[in-house]
From TrEMBL, chain A:
A Pfam family this chain is assigned to: ABC_tran
Alphabetical UniProt keywords: ATP-binding, Nucleotide-binding, Transport
InterPro entries with a match to the protein in the record: AAA+_ATPase, ABC_transporter-like_ATP-bd, ABC_transporter-like_CS, NHR_dom, P-loop_NTPase
Lineage: Bacteria, Bacillati, Actinomycetota, Actinomycetes, Micrococcales
Domain of life (superkingdom): Bacteria
GO molecular function term, any single one: ATP binding
Protein's recorded name: ABC-type quaternary amine transporter
Enzyme Commission designation: 7.6.2.9
Ranges of residues in domain ABC transporter: 3-238
UniProtKB/TrEMBL annotation, chain B:
GO term, biological process aspect, one: glycine betaine transport
Keyword check for Lyase: no
Entries under InterPro entries matching the protein: ABC_transp_perm/SBD (IPR051204), MetI-like (IPR000515), MetI-like_sf (IPR035906)
Organism the protein comes from: Amnibacterium flavum
Name assigned to this protein: Glycine/betaine ABC transporter permease
Membrane topology value: Multi-pass membrane protein
Protein family (similarity comment): Belongs to the binding-protein-dependent transport system permease family.
Keywords: Membrane, Transmembrane, Transmembrane helix, Transport
Gene3D superfamilies named in the record: MetI-like
Membrane-spanning parts: 30-52, 72-90, 96-114, 159-179, 191-211
Limits of the ABC transmembrane type-1 domain: 27-208
Compartments, record wording: Cell membrane; Membrane
Entry superkingdom: Bacteria
A Pfam family assignment: BPD_transp_1
Amino acid sequence: MSIEFRSVSKRFDDGTLAVENFELTIPSRSITVLVGSSGCGKTTLLRMVNRMVDPTSGSILIDGDDIANRPPVALRRSIGYVMQNSGLLPHRKVVDNVATVPRLNGVSKSESRARALELLDTVGLDRSLADRYPNQLSGGQQQRVGVARGLAADPNILLMDEPFGAVDPIVRTELQRETLRLQRDLDKTVVFVTHDIDEAFLLGDQVVILQKGGIIAQKGTPAEILAAPANDFVAEFVGADRGKRALHVVSVDGRDVLVDSDGRPAGRLVPAPDKAEALTASGAPAAQGERAS
Amino acid sequence: MNLFLDAFGWLFAPEQWTGADSIPERIGQHLFFTVIAFVIASIIAIPLGYLIGHTGKGREVAVAISGAARALPSFGLILLLVILVGVLQIGPSVTAALVILAIPSILAGAYAGLESVDRRTIDAARSVGMTEWQILTKVEIPLGLPLLISGLRSGLLQIVATATLAAYVGLGGLGFDILQGIQTRNYPQTLGGAIVVVVLALLLDALFGLLEHFAVPKGVRGARGGRIASEAKAPIEAQKAGGVAQGVSAAGR
């Protein structure tokens, strides 16, 4: 389930050019994060994949087939979609929200309910919440329900549009970890949009940094981007030359300790024979040494 | 105060409650016109309002026409239609006038109901693969129902109050007593008739108030949905209050 953008451009009715000649291949069974400041076209690109937005020119291919030939409604039902503020239907119970897409696809009520309850387990929600309404849940719980709904029809592709943008930092960290765990278990093709570079580096196998107008400033694994920022924009955006990303080695009692640019210890340098290879292959975030106390 | 006592005296006199031209019969005539006009107005205004609310198109036109229609003097409209359509078609003319007067409120309730639904909720429904029809029937209509009923409520009150005027063109109803009372200087009868109209209007209003309450979807009850709903409701409520006053005062002319 790879997704391919071929010289995609989008000009909105008001004349704004959101993206121009965008080229990108999103590999299957991995997380690709589109990251950039607001107005860089990342959400537009995401919404083109399920035809919520149609490109003005160019084409988008899923497994080699142009999606322009697929009816939008059928296409959307085959693709999971998770958005900020969960987008749950306020008048439907949690379980019915999760079962929305299977129900639309004609799956029987009892079968979709059973599937929805399983999915609540999958996303780490207690089944006792099934008969609550969305506004009786916390923001973090609502986002979990949103993820469960996105997974309900067992789609190969999952689109996530700043799903954790509106929850508090502690819950966000928890949800990010859960996302990684889910991806390990479910192995979907995930396209994730965020403006938070830390989130991008944490989740992305492939990270695509976008500039205004959907121009790709750099793409690669987090490690590749950190190791060699393509230009000043990227260096500035990822903060490669400052803060907790700019580490240097200080020797303390004969041991190597990594210290960030503010002089705070970030970790200890330990030998890790297989890690370097793993970094470029799976894109695990760089500089995750043991935390020094 | 004497007038009120006399009015109640007239109201509770046994002869008003049995036989031809009794109050129950007048109420029946009154409700007959009311229900027919209400149903026709709803059949026209609800689909139109939903079309406007769902597509977002034609809103300005609808607001302008509704605004203009609300300013129509009801008495004048009835007389105009009777003259235009012909004296032999009094029933249909009066019904048409009542329909025209009720449409703006119902139309506003229908499209305001749809507009009150959070755009993000609709966007989400579309994103997961609902068809436009499913978005309308499964999301917009259930969430917009309280405002629609609020619109129906004020439209109905407008009709009940204005149907009083049907008596002027010889169609009976509760306006008959008001009119006859004025003509024969039997003011207790006039006031008694007016009281019956008011009570009928209040009963229907209470009924629809109850419906409106129960139409609020369970998951939306409480602070969050309520704020948006009450903001959008303000113009309809204002219209409703004006409607009854206008109808009753027109009847008293």
